[in-house]
Specification:
Belongs to the inositol monophosphatase superfamily. By secondary structure, the protein is of the alpha+beta class. 35% of the residues lie in helices and 21% in strands. The protein has two domains: 200 residues, Fructose-1,6-Bisphosphatase, Chain A, domain 1, CATH 3.30.540; 126 residues, D-Maltodextrin-Binding Protein, domain 2. The longest helix is centred in the N-terminal third of the chain and has 24 residues. The N and C termini lie far apart (48 Å). It binds 3'-phosphate-adenosine-5'-phosphate sulfate and magnesium ion (3 copies).
């Protein structure tokens, strides 16, 4: 099967990173720093980026990586670096059978170098990985939804997408039951989920909701990340009566891809913000392999080949193939009134 090795490595790397993130959440000893753009980053973001890039470099040494974080804060603060190094070592040592495939990290210097290997500028030629070590950092901090997201792109097309969601219920019909799910998709091979605790993956697909009246839509928690007011007008026009499900991170893509909801609306709040490729690459493939479509607000495909951002696109609309065009028509109608 095409990309079997890449999928295996990506799943093992994401699984190891999810253990690290869960350990930080469980410890209640998180350290948060505010970045230059005022967004938060935690020890878990750094640790997850280090473990995942180290795994990629151990297995596919020539592949470039577009990763969200850099190591500047760790290089200038010994205590922070030591804390992240300790988390990385614990995550590596607590795995069983991973190291023979994805290797390990041997020094804290190697950890810093791994984090900084995520500095690729992107582009539309050849292989590259897109990594969001913790997507929905605000969700992670508030013990809500967050996701560890890794994608392989070839000539700017996503061919492998893996998303780990430690706080998402394994069985959506049993929200109080076990949590921790890993989603994966390979281009042309379908979309799957399995419990983080299990080796058995099952296929997932969109709901067969035919009419937007019966649909559920999801959106960001933060009103600064998508335009809640415009989104509620779009929902009204589509006769959606159920309240929106607000959820942090690419868990939104995962939820609709397995039929918990039907539509993901992400209308821009600012004219200047450019969506980042690591916030959408994995979810894009998961949705298309599960029977859905992702475009920008104008119905254009997302272009992952123009750098670290989606600078050629505005907003994101994801829905099943059955509903997508209806949603785009409603978006057009509402946004042309503004
Ligand atoms: N202004 C603005 N507009 C749109 N998106 C933005 C904006 N600012 C930040 N971000 C990115 O939002 C990522 C989290 O998206 P979510 O959908 O999870 O948002 S939310 O956490 O539910 O609010 C978040 O990803 P992480 O940094 O990985 O958490 C950011 O990349
Ligand atoms: Mg993100
Ligand atoms: Mg992030
Ligand atoms: Mg961030």
């Amino acid at each position: 099967m095409a990309y079997a090795a890449e999928r295996k490595v990506a799943e093992l790397a994401v699984q190891r990173a999810c253990r690290l993130a869960v350990a930080v959440a469980d410890s209640n000893k998180n350290s948060t720093i505010t970045k230059d753009d005022s967004s938060p980053v935690t020890v878990a973001d750094f640790g997850c980026q280090a473990t995942i890039i180290a795994a990629i470099k151990n297995c596919f040494s020539e592949d470039p990586v577009v990763g969200e974080e850099d190591s500047d804060a760790l290089r200038s603060k010994d205590s922070l670096r030591e804390r992240v190094w300790s988390l990385v070592q614990d995550a590596v040592n607590s795995g069983s059978g991973e190291t023979e495939t994805i290797g390990e990290l041997t020094t804290s210097e190697a950890m810093l170098d791994a984090i900084d290997a995520g500095n690729y500028e992107g582009g539309n030629k050849g292989r590259m990985w897109a990594l969001d070590p913790i997507d929905g950092t605000k969700g992670f901090i508030r013990h809500g939804q967050y996701a560890v997201c890794l994608a392989l792109l070839v000539d700017s097309e996503v061919v492998v997408g893996v998303i780990g969601c430690p706080n998402l219920p394994v069985d959506p019909s049993n929200p109080e039951g076990e949590t921790g799910v890993i989603f994966s998709a390979v281009k042309g091979q379908g979309a799957f989920q399995r419990a983080l605790s299990s080796d058995v993956a099952t296929p997932i697909s969109f709901s067969d909701v035919q009419s937007t009246e019966d649909a559920v839509f999801c959106e960001s928690v933060e009103s600064g990340h998508s335009a809640h007011g415009t989104q509620s007008k779009i929902a009204e026009l589509l006769n959606i009566s159920k309240p929106s499900v607000r959820m942090d991170s690419q868990a939104k893509y995962c939820s609709i891809a397995r039929g918990d909801g039907d539509i993901y609306l992400r209308l821009p709040v600012s004219d200047t913000y450019q969506e980042k490729i690591w916030d959408h690459a994995s979810g894009n493939l998961l949705v298309s392999e599960a029977g859905g479509k992702v475009t920008d607000m104008f119905g254009n495909d997302l272009n992952f080949g123009v750098g670290r951002t989606l600078k050629n696109n505005k907003g994101v609309i994801a829905a099943s193939n059955l509903l997508h065009q209806k949603v785009i028509d409603a978006v057009k109608q509402i946004t042309s009134q503004n």
